[in-house]
Amino acid sequence: MTQHGRRTLAVDDTSVRVGDESVRVLRVAGELDTATSDQLRDAVGTAVGAVTAGGGARPSGGPPLVVLDLDEVSFCDSRGLTSLLTAVTASARRGASLRFAAQPPSAVQRLLIRTGLDDLLPMYATLDEAVTSMDTSRFEQEATGEVSGP
């Protein structure tokens, strides 16, 4: 996507119901790279601020949840990947869980696999899977002090 010669990232911020859960979903479309990573960071920060403002846990007992729907991301480079990892850590430190959903084989999932980060940062195939999974990523655990070391 371009706007006046610059690449842009479209981020649609909505809340959806999945079972008993009300979940903040950021639907992301376009290229996730150096030119757009700040835009993603700002959108995630706003969404995490909104879900943690109430201070309550989800009905399932977990922390407030934000899901990034990355189905429409057409390209992701190392800067885009860094912004996703930073977003997970920053969200966890603020008391929220950040999950990724995209139908395989998505651009982001392919990059996670190529870099070996797919085991540390899971990608869920559907929004339902992202919401109902009780797993926390290694990055979330380290950010909240649940684990340490390699």
Rg estimate, integer Å = 15 Å
Query: Which homologous superfamily in CATH is the superfamily?
Result: STAS domain
CATH structural architecture:
2-Layer Sandwich
Largest sheet: 5 strands, mixed
- Secondary-structure class: alpha/beta
Helix content: 25-40%
- N-to-C SSE series? EEEEHEHEHEHH
- The N- to C-terminal Cα distance equals 38 Å
Low-confidence stretches: none
> What coarse outline follows from CA principal-axis ratios?
globular
- Strands, total number: 7
How much of the residues is beta strand, in percent? 25-35%
What is the CATH T-level topology? Transcription Regulator spoIIAA
Strand order of the largest sheet: 3-4-5-6-7
Mean pLDDT: 84
The CATH class assignment is Alpha Beta
What is the number of domains? 1
Q: How many helices? A: 5
